[in-house]
Specification:
heterodimer, A: mainly alpha, B: alpha/beta, Rossmann fold, transmembrane (chain A), Putative siderophore transport system permease protein YfiZ (chain A)
C-alpha cells in the first residue's frame, strides 16, 4: 500500500498515520490469531477446549486430534479466506457505487451467485465441478444489476433506495432459488444448507478451486487501489489525474464478482460482512480506500471466524448458520449508518 | 499587474473544436489559442459552453468535431497520463471523502508522476511541501478539508493542481461561492502562479474580476467566441449588452486602471 513508505523527511501527520496503520494492522492480526485459536479449541461437539488444546499440541485422544485437525482447522481456514474476500469485496463495491450501504449481500450479488449455482445444479451439473465459475458468473450478473439500478435516476442518488432495490432483487432471486429447490429434490439436498451460508463441513480441497480467482482479484485490487482512491474526488478530477474512471470501475466490479462468487461457492451467501467490515475499517483508518481495503482483509477474516465460533456455541449441541450471526451483527450497523444524520460521503 | 499579450506561443489550442452532449451541440467549430505564461479568463453568460470548453481542452470531454492541439499534437494521440502531466484541471464542484486532510488531498496531485512500480518518493515529498508553501496553507496540512473556510479549501484544491507540476492549469470558476476576501485570496494565488511561468485558463463568472486578474480574455456566447484579447480592449458596453443583455457604463478602476461596470441596468425594452 502506498500509504506507507516515504523516503523524504516525513511530516508529523504522515508519520502519525503510518504508525497508526501499523498499530492497527498488528492489533487486528493479534485479535484474529486469538479468534483462530478459539475456533480450533471450541465447538458444539463433545471435544471441549482442554482436550482440544492437547490435541492441537499433538497429544490427547485420537478423537480430539481428528476434531481439531480434520474438522475445525479446515473450517477456520475457510472462514479466514471467505471473510477476507467478502470484506474486500464490500470495500470495493462501496467505493465504486459511492454508497456506504453497498454490500454484496444486500445488493443481490450473493443472491445472484446462489441462484446461478441452483440453476446449474438443476440443469444437471454436479456441485464439485461447476460451482466456483458459475457462482462468479452469477455474482457478476448480480453486480451488473446493482450497478444498473445505481444508474437509475432517483435510485442511484439515494443510498437507501439502492439498498431497497437490492433487497427486492435479493428476494426475487431467493424466491426463484427456493422454487428450484422445491421442483428438484436432488438439487435441494445438495444445496439446502449451503443456501443459508455456512463454513461447516467444508474441506480444504474446496479452497483449491477458488484460489486462482482470489489471486486474480487480489492482483486487480492492488492495481486499481490508487485510481480507486482518486475516484473518491469525482470522475473529472480522477480523469484529470490521468486515471480512467470507466476502466477502474469495470475492473473493480470484476474483482467484486470474483471475490463474492468465490466466497459464495465455498460458504454460500453470507450477508452483512461486506457492510460491517468496511464500516469498521473506515472508522479505524480514515477515508482513504487504500487503507480501508488493507484493513478489510484482517477485519473480514476476523468477523467470519468469530461469527463461526459463536454460531457453534449458542445453541449447543446444534449450530446456527453463520449468516444468522452476521445478520445479527450487521443489522445494527445498517441501522446506525442509515440513521446517521448524513450518510458519509465516499 | 496584468501583462499585455504579445504575439507569443501557445501550447494549447482548440482547432475547429466541436463539443456536444448527446445530440445537443454545446460548442461548434471553435478555434482558440491560449497564450503561454498568461492568465486567460473565459467569460460569458450561463450555459454558453464555458465549462464544457474547459473540459474539452483538458480531454475530459470527447470532441464531436475538430480537436484540441497540445504541444503541436492532437491531444487524443497523447497517453492519458502524459496529458495529466501537462494539464491540471480543477472542476467547479469538487467532492472529497469526509475527513480527508489537506496533505492527503495534495498527494493525489502526484498520481500522474507515479505508477504501480514507482510509489511515493522524496521528490513527491518535496513537491508536496512546495505546493503547501506556494498556496500558503502549510499550517493547515493536517487539517481535514471539511474543517476549512471556503477560501482555504479552494487553495488546498489549487495546491493539489500545483503538485501535478503541469505547465497548464485550467480552473472552472475557482472563486464561485466565495466571499470577496476569499476571492482575492484565490485570484492572488492565481497571479502568483502565472508569475512563476504557468499558463492559467479560468472560467470566471464575474466580468470585473476577470478584467482585473486576467491578461487575456475570451468572451463566449452560444458556444462561440465573440471577442478575444486584452480585457481593456475586449470589454465594451456593446459586448456587455451582447453577452448579458444589460446596459452599462464602463469606467476605469482609479487604482488599477482595469475596466469596471457602472450603473448596470436592464434595457428599457426588457423592462415591463
Amino acid at each position: 500500500m502506498t500509504a506507507a513508505g516515504s523516503n523524504g523527511a516525513p511530516r508529523v501527520g504522515e508519520a502519525g498515520t503510518r504508525m497508526r496503520m501499523t498499530g492497527l494492522t498488528a492489533a487486528c492480526a493479534a485479535v484474529l490469531a486469538l479468534a483462530c485459536l478459539a475456533s480450533l479449541l471450541l465447538g458444539a461437539g463433545s471435544v471441549d477446549a482442554g482436550p482440544a488444546l492437547a490435541g492441537l499440541l499433538g497429544h490427547g485422544s485420537e478423537e480430539a486430534r481428528f476434531v481439531v485437525f480434520e474438522l475445525r482447522a479446515p473450517r477456520t481456514v475457510i472462514a479466514l479466506v471467505v471473510g477476507a474476500a467478502l470484506g474486500v469485496a464490500g470495500a470495493l463495491l462501496q467505493a465504486v457505487t459511492r454508497n456506504p450501504l453497498a454490500e454484496p449481500g444486500l445488493l443481490g450479488v450473493s443472491a445472484g451467485s446462489a441462484f446461478a449455482v441452483a440453476v446449474a445444479l438443476t440443469l444437471g451439473a454436479s456441485a464439485a465441478t461447476l460451482r466456483s465459475t458459475v457462482a462468479q458468473l452469477g455474482a457478476l450478473g448480480g453486480c451488473l444489476c446493482a450497478i444498473g439500478a445505481g444508474r437509475l435516476r432517483g435510485v442511484g442518488d439515494d443510498p437507501v433506495r439502492l439498498v431497497l432495490a437490492g433487497a427486492a432483487l435479493s428476494s426475487l432471486l431467493a424466491a426463484l432459488t427456493s422454487m428450484l429447490l422445491l421442483v428438484d429434490q436432488r438439487t435441494a439436498d445438495e444445496i439446502r444448507f449451503w443456501v443459508v451460508g455456512s463454513v461447516a463441513g467444508r474441506r480444504l480441497s474446496d479452497l483449491s478451486g477458488i484460489l486462482p480467482s482470489l489471486a486474480a482479484a487480489a492482483l486487480i485490487t492492488l492495481a486499481i487501489a490508487r485510481p480507486l482512491a482518486a475516484l473518491a474526488l469525482g470522475d473529472r478530477v480522477a480523469a484529470g489525474l490521468g486515471h480512467r474512471p470507466g476502466t477502474v470501475r469495470l475492473l473493480a466490479v470484476i474483482a467484486v464478482a470474483l471475490l463474492v462468487g468465490a466466497a459464495t461457492a465455498v460458504a454460500g451467501p453470507i450477508a452483512f460482512v461486506g457492510l460491517v467490515v468496511p464500516f469498521a475499517a473506515r472508522a479505524l483508518a480514515g477515508p482513504d480506500i487504500r487503507r480501508t481495503l488493507w484493513l478489510s482483509v484482517p477485519l473480514g477474516a476476523l468477523v467470519v471466524v468469530a461469527a463461526d465460533v459463536v454460531s457453534r456455541l449458542v445453541v449447543q449441541p446444534s449450530e446456527l448458520p453463520i449468516g444468522v450471526l452476521t445478520a445479527l451483527l450487521g443489522a445494527p450497523v445498517l441501522i446506525a449508518v442509515v440513521r446517521a444524520r448524513r450518510l458519509p460521503t465516499l | 499587474m496584468n501583462r499585455p499579450v504579445t504575439d507569443g506561443d501557445s501550447r494549447l489550442q482548440a482547432d475547429r473544436l466541436g463539443l456536444a452532449y448527446g445530440r445537443t451541440t454545446i460548442v461548434r467549430e471553435l478555434s482558440l489559442a491560449l497564450p503561454d505564461g498568461r492568465v486567460t479568463a473565459i467569460v460569458g453568460p450561463n450555459g454558453c459552453g464555458k465549462s464544457t470548453l474547459l473540459a474539452g481542452l483538458a480531454r475530459l470531454h470527447p470532441p464531436s468535431g475538430g480537436g484540441v492541439v497540445l504541444d503541436s499534437r492532437d491531444i487524443r494521440d497523447l497517453p492519458t497520463r502524459e496529458v495529466a502531466r501537462r494539464i491540471a484541471l480543477l472542476p467547479q464542484h469538487t467532492v472529497a471523502p469526509e475527513g480527508l486532510t489537506v496533505a492527503e488531498l495534495i498527494r493525489f496531485g502526484r498520481h500522474p508522476h507515479q505508477g504501480l512500480m514507482r510509489q511515493w518518493s522524496a521528490e513527491d515529498e518535496r513537491v508536496l511541501a512546495e505546493s503547501l508553501a506556494v498556496a500558503d496553507i502549510e499550517a493547515l496540512a493536517d487539517r481535514p478539508l471539511d474543517a476549512l473556510s471556503g477560501g482555504q479549501r479552494q487553495r488546498a484544491w489549487i495546491a493539489m493542481a500545483i503538485a501535478q507540476q503541469t505547465p497548464l492549469l485550467l480552473l472552472d470558476e475557482p472563486t464561485s461561492a466565495l466571499d470577496l476576501g476569499h476571492q482575492l485570496e484565490v485570484f492572488e494565488l492565481i497571479r502568483a502562479l502565472a508569475a512563476s511561468g504557468k499558463t492559467v485558463v479560468m472560467v470566471v463568472h464575474d466580468l470585473v474580476s476577470a478584467c482585473r486578474f486576467a491578461d487575456h480574455m475570451v468572451a463566449m456566447l452560444d458556444g462561440d467566441v465573440v471577442a478575444e484579447g486584452p480585457p481593456a480592449e475586449v470589454v465594451t458596453p456593446a459586448l456587455v449588452r451582447r453577452l448579458y443583455g444589460i446596459e452599462c457604463t464602463l469606467i476605469e478602476d482609479p487604482v488599477t486602471g482595469s475596466p469596471m461596470l457602472a450603473n448596470p441596468r436592464r434595457p428599457a425594452t426588457a423592462r415591463s
